[in-house]
Amino acid sequence: MNIGVISVRYARALLAFAKSRGTEDRVYDETKRLARVSVTVPQLRHTIENPVLSIATKHKLLCDAVGVKEVSEELKRFFRLVLEEKREKFLQFMIWSYIDLYREDKHILIGKLTTAVESPKLVKKLEELASARTNGVVELETKVDPSIIGGYIIELAGFRLDASVQNQLKRIRRQFIARNRRIV
């Protein structure tokens, strides 16, 4: 069976279950945390797929990986279902599918913001401005890149605005070179 079909089916079921209980926002936050952990700790997936480990051990490991004091009952039950049905190898895809379905359902746009230094105030301000312009919710994934010297680069809905000092210096350099060629 197709990985995408299975993943989306389980993700839709989780979203429907969480919505019926009014906890889809909490489950969304928890799945985002788990997705982040699965990217930074690839051994987690291999451990979860290990057939030697018991379902209880895998379940506890997944709950711990979410990184919150108490995981929602909906996500716990989802983990149990996935483990009992022996669908662990699809879990990472299910989590990403849930995140995508949730964002689609809530009309959330995802953008990327690159700054020279961490700037939570800038992130919040740009999210608010972008949300107002798009009439929706905007979440910015941030990245720090000191090579841009200052300013920021924002990418959202296929558009890119490079307001970095590095880009401004490049433009000034190009203008300077072009002007000097005309003079000579």
From TrEMBL:
<protein>
    <recommendedName>
        <fullName>ATP synthase subunit delta</fullName>
    </recommendedName>
</protein>
<dbReference type="GO" id="GO:0045259">
    <property type="term" value="C:proton-transporting ATP synthase complex"/>
</dbReference>
<comment type="similarity">
    <text>Belongs to the ATPase delta chain family.</text>
</comment>
<dbReference type="InterPro" id="IPR026015">
    <property type="entry name" value="ATP_synth_OSCP/delta_N_sf"/>
</dbReference>
<comment type="function">
    <text>F(1)F(0) ATP synthase produces ATP from ADP in the presence of a proton or sodium gradient. F-type ATPases consist of two structural domains, F(1) containing the extramembraneous catalytic core and F(0) containing the membrane proton channel, linked together by a central stalk and a peripheral stalk. During catalysis, ATP synthesis in the catalytic domain of F(1) is coupled via a rotary mechanism of the central stalk subunits to proton translocation.</text>
</comment>
<dbReference type="Pfam" id="PF00213">
    <property type="entry name" value="OSCP"/>
</dbReference>
<keyword id="KW-0375">Hydrogen ion transport</keyword>
<dbReference type="InterPro" id="IPR000711">
    <property type="entry name" value="ATPase_OSCP/dsu"/>
</dbReference>
<keyword id="KW-0139">CF(1)</keyword>
<keyword id="KW-1003">Cell membrane</keyword>
<dbReference type="GO" id="GO:0005886">
    <property type="term" value="C:plasma membrane"/>
</dbReference>
<dbReference type="GO" id="GO:0046933">
    <property type="term" value="F:proton-transporting ATP synthase activity, rotational mechanism"/>
</dbReference>
<keyword id="KW-0066">ATP synthesis</keyword>
<keyword id="KW-0472">Membrane</keyword>
<keyword id="KW-0406">Ion transport</keyword>
<comment type="function">
    <text>This protein is part of the stalk that links CF(0) to CF(1). It either transmits conformational changes from CF(0) to CF(1) or is implicated in proton conduction.</text>
</comment>
<keyword id="KW-0813">Transport</keyword>
